[in-house]
C-alpha cells in the first residue's frame, strides 16, 4: 500500500482544510513545489494534488502551480479539482500530471467519464467523495441524493480503473479513517481503492493496509504537515503491516 502525501492548493499556497471547509483553511507553505520535493526526498512514490479553488469554482485555476510541482519531482502525480469537461481534463494533463481525477460529475454523468476513459485509459481516476453515504459535489459544498456505493459500482462498470474514496466528515480531522465505510466499499468493487480522510496516527495507516489487497494507497495530509509522524515512518509501518 502506498502512503501518498496530499498537496492541496488554494491561491497558489499549500493548505489543508477541515472537512473540506474553506473557512477552516490552514496555510502550510507558500512554495508547493518545495513541499513536493520534500515529500519525494522522504520516499513518496506518488503525490496527490488537489486544486481546491478549481473544485469549488468549477474549473482548474492553479495549473501553473501544479506545473511547477510536476517539474520539481520525478515521482508520478495525480491531480484533481474542478474537472467538469474534457477540456479541463486535457488542461490538467498539459501540466505533466500522470493521472487526472474526476469528481462527482463523472459518476452522475457517465458520458464525460466514458469519453475521458476512451482518450486516456487508466490515467483517469474517479473520486467518490461521501458524506453520510451520499455523494458530495461542487468542492464538497453540496450533498447529493446519490448513494456513494452505487456510484462506485457505476463507475467501475463504465470501465474506471481505480477510485479515490474520501469520507468527508473525517477529512482533515486526524480522528481516524472510517474503516467500516472502506471495508464496505472493498466488498462491493473489484478495482483498486485509494483511501482518503482521517489519518492521524501510524496505527491508522496500519489498519487501512490490513483491510486487504484492494487498498492501493492511503492519502495523508494534515498529520504529515503537523509532524505527527514522518513519511518515512509511515512507509515503514505499512511495509511491516503487510
Structural summary, described in words:
The protein is of the alpha/beta class. It has a single domain, classed as Aldolase class I (TIM Barrel). Helices cover 38% and strands 29% of the residues. It is built from 11 helices and 12 strands. It has helices at 32-41, 52-57, 63-72, 86-93, 104-108, 110-120, 148-157, 179-186, 202-209, 222-225, 231-241, and strands at 2-10, 13-18, 21-29, 47-51, 77-80, 99-102, 124-131, 134-137, 142-147, 163-167, 193-196, 215-220. An 8-stranded parallel beta barrel has the order 1-4-5-6-7-10-11-12, surrounded by 8 helices. Strand 1 (2-10) and strand 2 (13-18) form a beta hairpin. The model has no long low-confidence stretch (mean pLDDT 93).
Amino acid at each position: 500500500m502506498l502512503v501518498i502525501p496530499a498537496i492541496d492548493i488554494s491561491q497558489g499556497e499549500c493548505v489543508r482544510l477541515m472537512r473540506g471547509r474553506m473557512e477552516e483553511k490552514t496555510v502550510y507553505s507558500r512554495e508547493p513545489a518545495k513541499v513536493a520535493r520534500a515529500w519525494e526526498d522522504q520516499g513518496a512514490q506518488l503525490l496527490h494534488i488537489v486544486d481546491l479553488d478549481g473544485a469549488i469554482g468549477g474549473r482548474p485555476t492553479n495549473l501553473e502551480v501544479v506545473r511547477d510541482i510536476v517539474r520539481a519531482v520525478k515521482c508520478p502525480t495525480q491531480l484533481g479539482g474542478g474537472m467538469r469537461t474534457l477540456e479541463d481534463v486535457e488542461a490538467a494533463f498539459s501540466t505533466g500530471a500522470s493521472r487526472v481525477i474526476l469528481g462527482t460529475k463523472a459518476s452522475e454523468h457517465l458520458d464525460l467519464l466514458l469519453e475521458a476513459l476512451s482518450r486516456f485509459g487508466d490515467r483517469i481516476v474517479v473520486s467518490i467523495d461521501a458524506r453520510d453515504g451520499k455523494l458530495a459535489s461542487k468542492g464538497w459544498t453540496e450533498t447529493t441524493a446519490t448513494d456513494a456505493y452505487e456510484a462506485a459500482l457505476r463507475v467501475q462498470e463504465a470501465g474506471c480503473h481505480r477510485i479515490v474514496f474520501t469520507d468527508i466528515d473525517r477529512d482533515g480531522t486526524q480522528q481516524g479513517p472510517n474503516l467500516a465505510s472502506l471495508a464496505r466499499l472493498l466488498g462491493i468493487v473489484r478495482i483498486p481503492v485509494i483511501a482518503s480522510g482521517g489519518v492521524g496516527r501510524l496505527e491508522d495507516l496500519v489498519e487501512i493496509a490490513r483491510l486487504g489487497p484492494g487498498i492501493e494507497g492511503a492519502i495523508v495530509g494534515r498529520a504529515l504537515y503537523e509532524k505527527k509522524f514522518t513519511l518515512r515512518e509511515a512507509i515503514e509501518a505499512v511495509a511491516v503491516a503487510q
